[in-house]
Predict the 3D structure of the following.
Amino acid sequence: MLETLKKEPQHPLLSSDENHYSLLIVDEAETEIGSFEWKDNYNIKNVKTVLKLDSLEEADQSYPFLQLDRTPIFIVFDMTNIVLKTGSEQELVQFLQEYHPNE
């Protein structure tokens, strides 16, 4: 079996896998969104990495270019761009159930 070289993303928030998304969650409330149980409950299999930040201030300091102004906020990345930015868990779940990278 040939081993392929992994292409490193240009930014750590971007997905490093062409078949999976990366998810950034900024949520000051204690929720299970993004957890293994959450992904299983909604049958979400196309998210490989999840970064969860507990405060808008922390997110703004780490990633000011995202220009976040509220929580909760859910941002889905493919290998090159933001593909969804929403404050709605329902919209996030619907997107992840309907869309897959490389489709």
